[in-house]
Amino acid sequence: MSRLRPIVVGNWKMNGLKSSVAEFSRITEGYDIGLRAKTDLAICPPFTLLSTFAVVALGSRVLIGGQDCHRSPSGAHTGDVSAEMIADTGATHVIVGHSERRADDLDTNAVVHAKARAARRAGLIAILCIGESEAERDGGKTLEVLETQLAASVPDGATADNLIIAYEPIWAIGSGRTPTLDEIAEAHAHIRHQLVLRFGDEGEDMRILYGGSVKPSNASDILAVENVNGALVGGASLRAVDFLGIAHSYP
Ligand SMILES: O=C[C@H](O)COP(=O)(O)O
């Protein structure tokens, strides 16, 4: 097992109303001393719930993150939210480059790069997502795609304290399908290699999460794979029992 302290992150995507505080409270209550000894735990709710969740999380050590940020600290960007605003809620993390934003909002690698820099500027830890499409996997291009995304979207000067990589094969997100454990190991080893080539020893300490159809029934196998330092969980993070079940899967 990796020596790096794992982190299990829940991405609530566009889900959650004020009434969801009860479910989030169950997560904070379930993050007991036994679980804290195993793993960090974070929830990234929609922007509308960030401040509320940050208050509910106080004292629980559950971490809070945004799901995206604008590259600028403030200004005329209607509808956008800056990294500084996210940090101001008490959040510590922000997801950048999720494939849904790369697809829906045309976030290129250059844009993701700028957002990761913005996260650092605001003192947030960026959870930077990369991953191949099904056509790219079928075409044998997975490792090449990951390499290109890493080179173009991870900023210089990134450290293990301000950057987490999340490997999410696009075809595995919300589909119930996952790569084989060998395929996950291969992708994570490649990401680790690229990080070490670029950042030296610092690259050894950067956490690499797996995301895509993680659930309580497959978490223990996936989380045991070499260089998998945690998970980015979508659908299964919406219910405390499932999310805590995944976090408990660590040996
Ligand atoms: O950010 C989370 C990922 O997109 C994974 O979503 P999923 O667990 O619903 O497949």
Automatic annotation (TrEMBL):
It is found in: Cytoplasm. Its EC number is 5.3.1.1. The active site is at residues 98, 168. Keywords: Cytoplasm, Gluconeogenesis, Glycolysis, Isomerase. Its main location: cytoplasm. Substrate binds at residues 11-13, 174, 213, 234-235. Pathway: Carbohydrate biosynthesis; gluconeogenesis; Carbohydrate degradation; glycolysis; D-glyceraldehyde 3-phosphate from glycerone phosphate: step 1/1; Carbohydrate metabolism; erythritol degradation. The keyword Endoplasmic reticulum does not apply. Belongs to the triosephosphate isomerase family. Involved in the gluconeogenesis. Catalyzes stereospecifically the conversion of dihydroxyacetone phosphate (DHAP) to D-glyceraldehyde-3-phosphate (G3P). This is Triosephosphate isomerase.
